[in-house]
From TrEMBL:
Protein's GO biological process: DNA repair; protein secretion by the type II secretion system
Gene assigned in the entry: comEA
Domain Helix-hairpin-helix DNA-binding motif class intervals: 219-238, 249-268
Name of the featured protein: Competence protein ComEA
The organism's place on the tree of life at top rank: Bacteria
InterPro entries named among the record's database cross-references: Competence_ComEA_HhH, Endo/Exo/Phosphatase_dom_1, Hlx-hairpin-Hlx_DNA-bd_motif, RuvA_2-like, Soluble_ligand-bd
Sorted UniProt keywords: Membrane, Transmembrane, Transmembrane helix
GO MF entries: DNA binding
Length: 271
């Protein structure tokens, strides 16, 4: 407690009579009343202290309001899926695996099988992607050999499954040129673009089992003695250029057929 609020033990209590005697006296000094003779009273608190109390009360009220507003709402129960039965994640997984397994089979069936023969480094069958072109088939066969006739080939021509590319040779001083050619699958009696093979009964043939030079396919000509894929392509090239054979002797005009080979073919072909 402040000293100014503490009661003074040595102070005298003034009675009404003593105060009256002091006022009635002639001595002016007796009119002066010292603080020691006045009763002690509790003075009111200063205004600054009251202001601090008010501010404290307001702070408590504001804090209480903020705490009430920031109290999180009750969180409802979380419903977890039951372990019984398949979950949603299992179905897409099985579907994805099935799709991945079926993709290679469809890609395999879509690849083209092309026959490349003649002046190439690795003649035979090559497997190409869909919409492949003649240039892709030659590259898969190791590329053309020196002297190969590439001017007769449209390297940008698209291929179909079962096509055959016959790479001929350019002419020089010792031999005549044999132009390159492309035999389509349906023209060779093989399955065409529709996938249906040409029946053997529909294949052209001459009387008495002889091969008709004007209607024979590359496969039929290739089966003749002494005739390979290159010579068969040369026969078809001559036929396309001249229209049709009018005599078997005109085979001598085909590149690669000499007198000896013509003698072997005379009894096997007809016009």
């Amino acid at each position: 407690m402040p000293s100014w609020l503490a009661p003074q033990e040595d102070s005298e209590d003034l009675s009404p009579d003593s105060v009256r005697d002091l006022l009635d006296g002639d001595d002016p000094d007796r009119l002066v009343v010292s603080d020691d003779h006045l009763p002690h009273r509790v003075l009111p608190a200063p205004p600054a202290a009251l202001a601090l109390v008010v501010v404290g009360i307001l702070a408590v009220v504001v804090a209480a309001v903020v705490m009430v507003r920031n109290t999180p709402a009750d969180i409802g129960p979380v419903n977890f899926p039951s372990s019984a039965g398949p979950t949603a994640s299992r179905v897409p997984l099985s579907t994805k695996v099935a799709g991945e397994q079926s993709a290679p089979s469809s890609a395999t069936t879509a690849r083209l099988v092309i026959s490349v023969v003649g002046l190439v480094h690795r003649p035979g069958l090559v497997h190409l992607r869909p919409q492949a072109r003649i240039a892709d088939a030659l590259a898969a066969a190791g590329g053309p050999r020196p002297g190969a006739d590439l001017l007769s080939l449209n390297l940008a021509r698209p291929l179909h499954d079962g096509d055959q590319i016959i790479v001929g040779f350019s002419g020089d001083g010792n031999r005549r040129a044999m132009r390159s050619a492309v035999i389509a699958a349906d023209e060779a009696g093989l399955p065409g673009p529709g996938g249906q093979p040409v029946p053997e009964a529909d294949l052209p043939s001459g009387a008495s089992g002889k091969v008709d030079l004007n209607t024979a396919t590359a496969a039929q000509l290739d089966a003749l003695p002494g005739v390979g894929p290159v010579t068969a392509a040369a026969i078809i090239e001559w036929r396309n250029r001249n229209g049709r054979f009018t005599s078997v002797d005109q085979l001598a005009e085909v590149e690669g057929i000499g007198p000896g080979r013509l003698a072997k073919l005379r009894d096997k072909v007809t016009v």
